[in-house]
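Support reply, case 0932

Customer input (verbatim):
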Amino acid sequence: MKIFAVIVTYNGMQHDWIGKCLKSLEQSAMPVTAIVVDNNSTDGTREYVPEHFPDAVWFPQEKNLGFGQANNLGIKYALDNGADYILLLNQDATIHPDALRLLTDASDGESLLSPVHLNGDGTKLDEMFRISIKPKDGMLFSDLLLNKKLEKSYETGEICAACWLLPADVVRKIGGFNPLFFHYGEDNNYYQRLVYHKVKTLLVPQATMCHDRVFYGNEVAFNKNKYRRDVLLITCDINLSLQKRLFQLLRLLVRSYAYELPKHAYKPGSFLREMLWTTFHINTIQASRKKEKDTGLTWIEK
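Our regenerated output:
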């Protein structure tokens, strides 16, 4: 079984993130080849990784490609080299030694898999994971509360892409990340496509990883172009009809006026500016929606 882990780095030396991430892969009970795609770091990451992890496949970039497109480069390399599974792992994340074994044991080869996301020191659940986790039938919570033996996996809703295990066949069906999303939102969009193509997301409760962040991680990056990301997620969602997309956009506008006005990330003027941007790029968005409805290596094959 060939497993490749794709890690996108950008100034990953803070808190020794990239070092801890790659060391956790070296300690994995299942062999895994690390592919590191660096988005033109300026903090010493570009010197540190090749020197300290010479076995990692190293792809330094001359500009910041963004999270999704950088991942696409690593995913393409993995597929070209016969990957059975591709692990997407954030630079500020580490996996437990048994995580890959537990994830592959639970795999049906047709679903995205995720471990339980813990905080940086592993003492509690990651905040965003805790808020967003929604098991489909509620049986995970029932089994936990009743102290029953846990199943190998539970179908769930959307899970952050800080640690995704993708069978190669899922990638061949869904493709890569949409380049319209530079940083943040690309995993939300990918999940929309998984739902459209009826690919399940499975949570493996015995497998764990640690995500060393506070809520959104980089709050400045999260808030930058937030409206554009929110508008894009609605307009690109291939599960929504035209009427539902218009309704969701209206809700976003109302929220900007009625509820979020004091927050700098939500300003009515920003919303209107992003709607203008969306209108100007409507042909690109429509082409994007068409590609997302098709199966194949979208945005990976050149």
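We compared this against your earlier run and they match. Two observations from our side: The chain has 13 helices and nine strands. Residues 48 and 144 are 42 Å apart (CA to CA). Please reopen the case if you see a mismatch on your end.
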